[in-house]
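I would like you to sit down with the pair of lines that follows and say whether tokens and residues agree.
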Amino acid sequence: AQDDAYTRTTNEKMEMASAALLVTIFLVVYLQCGLAILYNYYWWIRFYDTVQYAAPVTVPEGAEPVVPKILHQTWKNKEVPDKWKAAQQSCIDKHPGYEYRLWTDEDAEKLIAEKFPWFLETYKAYPHNIQRADVLRYFVLYEYGGIYLDLDVECVKSLDYLRYFNFTAPKTYPIGVSNDVMIARPKDDFSLRLIKNLGSWRKWFFVKYATVMFSTGPMFVTIQFSLYDKKEQFTVLPADVYGKYEVTSHAYLKHLHGSSWHGNDAKYVFWLEHHGIFTACMGVVLLATAVTALLVHRHWRMAAGQPSYLLVPGQAACGQAGMVSSSWHTLAAMLGGAQQRACMQCKKCDVV
């Protein structure tokens, strides 16, 4: 009996230690990001009307341009797909006198290795190519400044007026800013914030779409802006100028909607986004079903006189009363209070 009690006690301690370790790892890895994401949504809902827009009429009178005349785009090699060549050429034509740079994968790794060697290991470790394409634009804008455009963006008008703003990114749906068009001065503070925080957001967010969006993509930029303490230096490209969601005569850009990196998981994410109420209801139903199943399993194990560690870590079967004893009394009371209290009054067990 003493050996059995010792074994039970040892198992309880091991399970509690394992649970504590897992919780600690989760908190260290995800808590900071989770709180930042929650604050980001709160900020955009509560303070959205405080953002500064970079419309043509908002250019300060007598101001000098701070962004150099450089047009940046990226692709894996010099062979741009035919479907994007017209859009590429339109941006070159609409910006005469600009230096044009098409950054390839080889150019990107060379830039990181030479200018930012501290990030090279992280850069190579990204599981998806789109993540490397995302971070490249941040480093390029920080180092050289200029205008960055995705290859699937067609230029209808010149973006030259945006050279008067420190950092500009377009408003996107449903909240935040995108990273397919960005304009920045060299060594801008916000560009620096982006590249400095990439390492702490290199995490797995359960599906490819979310992982890309939050680790390097638009949501990463959006979150960094919501946490930025110099928001007055950041301007947002208005939706009618951006031309992606509002196609009007005021649009400076036209979007071909490439999104070549999207996987099948993105379809499910978009579906969930457009069916929010149904998704929330199904989540509640699934949670209730899971809790019910766990409680039934726990009751069955107890009735059979077997230990059940599933819901209450550290618990053991009561040999005399068929009840449950646990070191987590509060949690046990919530999940099975009556039986827990009965067991606490049992004086015949060697497990109390």
